Amino acid sequence: MRVLLVEDDEPVAESLRRGLLRYGFEVEWVTTGTAGLAVTTPYDLVLLDLGLPDTDGLDVCRALRRRGDVPIIVISARSDETDRVVGLEIGADDYVSKPFGVREVIARIRAVMRRVRPTDQPTGPQRYGARLSVDRKAARVWLDDAEVALTPKEYDLLAFLTEEPGALMSREQIMEAVWDANWFGPTKTLDVHVAALRRKLAGAVTVEAVRGVGFRLVVEPVGRQ
């Protein structure tokens, strides 16, 4: 998925760009409204700051909306209710106030894309191999057709890892997605939850540890018990 990021604050933009890249997004970053409107390569969603150096971001939002129905999420230090209402009324799909965490922005992107492209989303439980099913809408998990009792964080961890089976996820990426971008506690809690998933889902999936990096979820081949 390709994101157009229109943001003139370099530290904010770089942090957000790195976070989006870690989650598998492609990012084109520009620093002015004029540059944003001049982009000709296709993109799936716009992250738009309102406080741009050359023009008001609301004017950019209006211009983008006149061009088509690409989803637009406003990211701004303007937290006043009036700005939020105006942004939404002129065509923005969502509004995120600074400061924000990458996890929040990712969640907003996914929520917006579910609304604008509902047919792209699974309507029922998704199967992983022959034994494991995850129903994201109901937040329920089954192993061999028997429901597995997971704690909320165990479920969040499994749901995140099964988004891309086989992909190596760094500890930082997992902590941001499952806990919080501003988590300051020990990352040992991640190991505890991984151990719980290994125990509860033994034989269906394997959560492999890559020393010094993170974890990957591997779905056991059909027929292996």
From TrEMBL:
Tree of life domain: Bacteria
PROSITE patterns per UniProt: OMPR_PHOB, RESPONSE_REGULATORY
Domain (OmpR/PhoB-type) ranges: 123-219
Occurrences of domain Response regulatory (ranges): 2-113
Keyword Phosphoprotein in record: yes
Residue(s) carrying 4-aspartylphosphate: D49
Pfam assignment, any one: Response_reg
InterPro entries according to UniProt: CheY-like_superfamily (IPR011006), OmpR/PhoB-type_DNA-bd (IPR001867), Sig_transdc_resp-reg_C-effctor (IPR016032), Sig_transdc_resp-reg_receiver (IPR001789), WalR-like (IPR039420), WH-like_DNA-bd_sf (IPR036388)
DNA-binding region: 123-219
UniProt keyword terms in alphabetical order: DNA-binding, Phosphoprotein, Two-component regulatory system
PANTHER family reported in the protein's UniProt record: PHOSPHATE REGULON TRANSCRIPTIONAL REGULATORY PROTEIN PHOB (PTHR48111:SF40), REGULATOR OF RPOS (PTHR48111)
Protein's name according to its UniProt entry: Response regulator transcription factor
Originating species: Streptomyces tanashiensis
